[in-house]
């Protein structure tokens, strides 16, 4: 596999390898400090980012490479240069490209025309690098055997909901997305992708509109912001009303298993999708999860640039 364009392109073996190496980078950040010596990694973002940008920059630095951060308006792309031409220029100067933008098809096209590895650092549809950090945190908490456990995402059926279902399917887990019905449910395509993978991996994929039953006996409750980057402000009031039953409260947490944890990709809005008492409470693992954004991106860069991931396509 040359790129990581979509979560669905990872195999379970790829994920296990990435998490094993990330755990080593957590313990010893500079263990491969020359892996990207004399190499450059472009980090191109047309949306804001705190964690992914810092994690990517520090990951490249820990591997001995030079990160080059570019904002959307920095490139000639905004003035009509094609994605194909831009991809070829990136390939001439750099050894990998990490990209965050709106359309998944733009990231797919960069991957197609670039000869260097291209990593999806969030699109409107998917957030694969976040799921690597999430699953390392899950593995650290519960171990590798996920049988009998339920992993529940609650809230907007957005990019995070899609990636949650698809990565859970790859990992053979029982994953649930509890979202409103209609336009804030996960896309039919993401659900179909997760179910196809689950048919082979033995995972269970559940999409529901009932937050209370979803939370019952869950090992993880996960949520994300209700207004994603690029969501129309004109829909905000209606959306917040529809999402209110999916907020993670102490009452909802009390329905989960005794050893359950709370997860959030961040940024968070306390008092909206999660109450402060939950996100800042004893079951929250958000800081460990955020820490693993660096360890997992470091691992991903390490293995992708060495051509060591198999991929499912
Ligand atoms: N979780 C995450 O992707 O955070 P940023 O948007 O700050 O990168
Ligand atoms: N769903 C959010 C995730 C942020 C990490 C967004 O796309 O803005």
From TrEMBL:
MF GO annotations: amino acid binding; ornithine carbamoyltransferase activity
Pfam families: OTCace (PF00185), OTCace_N (PF02729)
Annotated keywords: Transferase
Annotated EC: 2.1.3.3
One biological process term in Gene Ontology: L-arginine biosynthetic process via ornithine
Source organism: Candidatus Planktophila limnetica
All residue ranges annotated as the Aspartate/ornithine carbamoyltransferase Asp/Orn-binding domain in the record: 148-303
Protein name according to UniProt: Ornithine carbamoyltransferase
Family to which the UniProt record says this protein belongs: Belongs to the aspartate/ornithine carbamoyltransferase superfamily.
